[in-house]
């Protein structure tokens, strides 16, 4: 198959900085859309993947799954998009399309889902590469429409940070009667606050960082609890219907379970791996409380969120950077020094 060389930024080893490289994109198949990338958000998952935190990275890796760009070419069977359209691509670029999850718009739970990076491109017979690049070729069924009224850099993080928090908010039916808490004010956390607030819920932030209190209120939180303060944690007992935990590293979930109401759910979206310390089942049994997980969201649900953001004028709080700043951005992300999402201006590549 013919391929196109494009400039990208990636890494060949877990301990190496990201640097410029050239990657191949497949030619445009009949159902494919070729996109010139304008902006790409920087997710903590990009850092986990580049540094092989999850033990599954194949190198070289080109991260990036919060992509906004302009259509430059379309295959002859493409019906949804035209050259010049502003479109987006999130964490998924393909799936089997025939399993029950695919049929139910839950492509993210398809056993054969293809990640935007670190997946497998069956046409190229090679790993997929993400949005830290000039362009990408994606099947139109995995391309999303961007509302015209929104800032293009600000909308990019909706494609992962937004949908990852929106999907549990919708699954657990959050509405104006709900009490929702969010653990960790980073990329995912700040979108969770904005979206839960827009759904009418009463929103609380759990944070280790007292200096983020005013920001959280400005984003739509009604209350902030400093998670290291035992008195504040005890005072929050039995309150929340849903807690969305975005913390990227192993931490004790038990104190948060105490703050759930009867039938409440703590949904972990941040940390992937065994818990330490272990969960104590007593408060779960005594209050029919659940601990759950959730992975991004399907294509239809992501479009629903983009449209909701358009209607409610919601975008992410972003710090736009040049691609050459990506390594220092990763270091700042590790120090929780992001307000609240880095987005790369891909013109800098
Ligand atoms: N499930 C999914 O589908 C999915 C999708 C996207 C991302 N993720 C994962 O979600 C996690 C969060 O991503 P992100 O991009 O939002 O990260 P981020 O911007 O770095 O934010 C994480 C926040 O968690 C808190 N935090 C960081 N380290 C902590 C620690 N050791 N203990 C307690 N709190 C800590 C900090 O908030 P405070 O300063 O307020 O405490 C920090 O701002 C990552 O692990 C990412 O891989 C999962
Ligand atoms: Zn992500
Ligand atoms: Zn499937």
Question: What would you note in describing this structure?
Answer:
The protein has 349 residues and is α/β, with parallel strands linked by helices. It has two domains: 189 residues, Medium-chain alcohol dehydrogenases, catalytic domain (Quinone Oxidoreductase, Chain A, domain 1, Alpha-Beta Complex); 133 residues, Rossmann fold, CATH 3.40.50.720. 24% of the residues lie in helices and 28% in strands. The structure holds NADP nicotinamide-adenine-dinucleotide phosphate (NAP) and zinc ion (2 copies). The site of NADP nicotinamide-adenine-dinucleotide phosphate has 30 residues, from helix 1, helix 4 and helix 5.
Short description, anyone?
The chain is α/β, with parallel strands linked by helices.
List the SSEs and their pairings:
Blueprint: E1 3-10, E2 19-26, E3 32-41, H1 44-50, E4 67-74, E5 86-89, E6 92-94, H2 100-103, E7 114-115, E8 120-121, E9 126-127, E10 135-139, E11 144-145, H3 152-155, H4 161-171, E12 179-183, H5 187-198, E13 202-207, H6 213-219, E14 223-226, H7 230-235, E15 240-245, H8 254-257, E16 260-268, H9 282-287, E17 290-293, H10 299-312, E18 318-322, H11 326-334, E19 341-345
Parallel strand pairs: 12-13, 12-15, 13-14, 15-16, 16-17, 18-19
Antiparallel strand pairs: 1-2, 3-4, 3-10, 3-19, 4-5, 5-11, 6-7, 8-9
